[in-house]
Amino acid sequence: MNNIVTFPISKLTKINKNWWTFIKIGEITDPNKGFPHNPFEDYENTFDLYDYWTGNFRIFTVADRLSLTADSKSYTSASYSNLNAAYTGYFQSSIIFLRVNNDEPIQLRNGTYTDWIKIDINDNVFNASFVQIKAKNYNYDGPLDFSDNGIYNLSDTKPFSYFKVGAPSSSVYGQYYISWLKIIEKSYDGKSIYYRAPAKTIVQICNLSVYTIQVGQIYKTPMRINSIPITLSLGPVSPFTGFYISIYLSSENYNSNIFFYPNVLNFSSGISEASFSIITGDIILSRECKFEFSIDGTDAQAFDIVKTHSFFIGTITNDDPEANFIITDIGCTHISVNLSTNGVGVITWALMSEFMYYRGKYSTEFFNIENNSRTLIENKGLSIKEQESIFFNELLLLDDINWDEYCLNVFLMARKIYFTSQNFVHGPEISKLYDFNYLVSDNSYVLVGYFDNFSGNDPYYFENFVSTLSVKEPANIDITFYEDIQDSNDTLIEILSNVIKVNKNRLVVINSTRRALNTQISLSLKPNALENWSSFTKLESFNLNEINNTLIENGFPKSKISISQPYVNPQSFLSSEFFIYENFIVFNIEVYKDGVICCEYEFDADLNITLTSDQINLKFDRNWKNASDKIECIKARSQIYETIQFNISKFFEENLEYNSVTFTCNACDNDPISPQCVSEGEFLQHTYNGLKEQINGYSKMLVISIILAYLN
Q: pLDDT tens, 296-305?
């Protein structure tokens, strides 16, 4: 009985102009389906009753005892503004609805938030670079509330997002709607539109079964130290406002030497797990103690828990804790972190950039890692999944109009990576800690961990180094059109960017030759540090004939297309000279490619520690201490001697005492994103003992000359 409006008429009535009825239908959104638009289509033959659908409406009357006749009648009238034309007034569109919860209604218990609900597309290929949408109540006073302020991002590197929806305990049972708004869509060519906001999502608030709170494994409680934390889990849901659980000893087991920390667990809005420890003083070993839970608070009616539990007092282990990270599945943006230990316990750990490892204040200290983690006991802070998601969303919002600047900003942000977590370890077998999926390629990371097995011994410190794979080599696309073309290179780039699904700013014309009978254009596809494959691998995944056909469909002539992976010669030193003059120490250096040369000096350097390109480029010494006043950098031209000099006064500063000075020079190419530098084993490096005496012993004459030849 949809689309029918009823006017009860209780007595015989004469209809006049005062009975005009206006029905306004607001907020009509595009339907999921329509009809192909064809100006030559005979719609009157397409629909059996075309006038009924598009131009008329009908009033039906039913005879009753008030009527003067026993016959029913119907009246047909013209429809103002094509009142019923909506059905046939929409045509099939190529713009696709985003999908929420696989287009299924969402079941919600009042007083809770749901599990994570997926937003995605009904397709294997995401055609846009970035889409941001916002959720809100369909009715302005609706009860629904959304995680992350209702704003969600999808991208070509992460074509899905997740959200939670909740409602307060006071919500009336019934059916509600989520209304969606598309905030922004970034296409590859900068102008195409592929997606629309999801259709309204049905949320059914109902009195679902009460959720039973799961109590984690209870291990033996050692004397005079905290027990292994015991976790209470709500499963996939969480409270809307909150509730709390009190923990206390059963009356028959009361003992002033037994405590619970904390003795009240607060499950606040959005929290689905909380833990507590048992603390004992001197007490009888192997004793069984019973304790109880009670629930109270705003959302307590949605949850239940088994009231009585017990624990035993005894030793878990006397062994020193041992642990090790096992890193698998290393990709450009992905690594899997696994853990091996010698028993049960708790690990407090972090994955950080190499830069944060050396330069972050207290970055490897236990208290700093724990303070930045979602802790097991106090349940404060963000989970590691939330930390990674925030970082990735910040990357998505970077300005990508200038691709080189964008990639440079991505690499700079990667140096600040610092993800932390605290996890239970349930046994000595190898267990998975976390899969990182949104790291930055060609970067070095360090895993740092502290494992506590509650033996009373100090936690075990361990670390591991890992580097993501590189995607920084560009790829070339060579196109030969079999006649001269009039379209601009910009048009070609826009079409190619849509076909191969890359940001148009990644494509750069590196050569263009136009002749009477053909046109040859070579383009370079720049790398993306957030993809898990190289530019060449991405191009290989496309059918070149299909690319050619798409160009023809857009008005380009037939062409021959090929792709290639150009070889990039590494930067290297050709030769160098070192001089000490009266006022300066001078380096004359010749390099293979245009780029940058940087030279650094260190007093009493520990040569057992390797000095890296990153350290020199970022103006640090081999111990990651600031060395900006000890480094000089210059632009270098290919196969031309360039000069770097240090003022001798630097080595005679007051109160400066040293036994040796080590000079190290590095050279990199001009890549603005991730420059290729001379390998660390080929740095120019020399250590001088008694440099002060050498300088004082000579005035204006050449003292030392070192010539190193690496290439002819």
A: 999 999 999 9
